[in-house]
Amino acid sequence: EVQVVESGGGLAQPGRSLRLSCATSGFSFVDYAMNWVRQAPGKGLEWVGFIRSKAYTGTPEYAASVKGRFSISRDDSKSVAYLQINSLKIDDTAVYYCTRSGAGWDYMDVWGKGTTVTVSS
Amino acid sequence: DIQMTQSPSSLSASVGDRVTITCRASQGIRNDIVWFQQKPGKAPKRLIYDAFSLQSGVPSRFSGSGSGTEFTFTISSLQPEDFASYYCLQHNTQPWTFGQGTKVEIK
Question: A77 CB contacts (<8 Å, ≥6 apart)?
C-alpha cells in the first residue's frame, strides 16, 4: 500500500525552528518529487515547495512566501522527505501535508493526513 | 507567478443538481491542472489530473475539461457525499499555485 505519513508538528514559539518529516512506503521514493502543501485554519491550500527526484537534479523549489526560511530535503536511503522551517512566524500556523508527484497519472495522488504546526508565544 | 482564479468561491446546490466550477489561469498552462476535493479535517483527495483524466475509483459524475487558460470541473449529478471544498492546482510553471477554492454547500 502506498503511504505517506507526516510528523514533527507541534507548538513552537515565534522565531524558533521546526523540522517536519514525511515518511513514505509502498512506492519507489527515489523516482518521485515530493511536495509540501499547507493549510492555515479556515483557509485554502497553499503549495509551499517541493524537491525533485535525484534523476531530475534533486533540487528544491519554493513558494515566494516561504523562500529563505523554508528548506526541503530528502533522504532516499530512508524514503523520507523533510521540511525545515526557520524563524517561525504566527502565519506559519497550519496543517502541513506531504504528497508525491510523478509524471501524470501519479501526480499528487497520495497524501498524508498532515501534521499540525502551531506558532504561538 | 501564475494566478489561478477559481469561481465561484462558494455555491449552494441540491442533490441531483449539475455543478460547474471554473479555474482561469493568468497564462497558458497546457493541460497541467489537477482538481482536488477536500472535506473538513481531511487531506485533499485528487479527483482529476491532466485536466480531464479521472482518478481511478472516482465516480464518473466527476469530470474536467479545458486547455490553455480556461478549465472547468463538473459534477453531473450532485450526491450527498459531494458536499465539500474543491480546489484546482496548476503544475505547469513554478511556483505551482492553487485556486482559492470552492465550497459546495447544501441548499
Answer: none
Q: Report pLDDT digits (tens) over B54-92.
A: 999 999 999 999 999 999 999 999 999 999 999 999 999
Three-class DSSP labels, A14-71:
CCCCEEEEEEEECCCHHHCEEEEEEECCCCCEEEEEEECCHHHCCCEEECCCCECCEE
Q: What percent of chain A has pLDDT over 70?
A: 100
Collect all residues of chain A within an 8 Å Cβ-Cβ radius of residue B49: 104-105, 107-109
Cα first-last separation, chain B:
36
> Do strands A60-62 and A45-51 pair parallel, antiparallel, or not at all (unpaired)?
antiparallel
- Contact B47/B9 with Cβ under 8 angstroms? no
Q: Which residues pair with A12 in a beta bridge?
A: A119
Facing A104 at nearest CB: one of B36, B38, B50 = B50
**Number of C-beta neighbours around residue A56 at 10 A:** 10
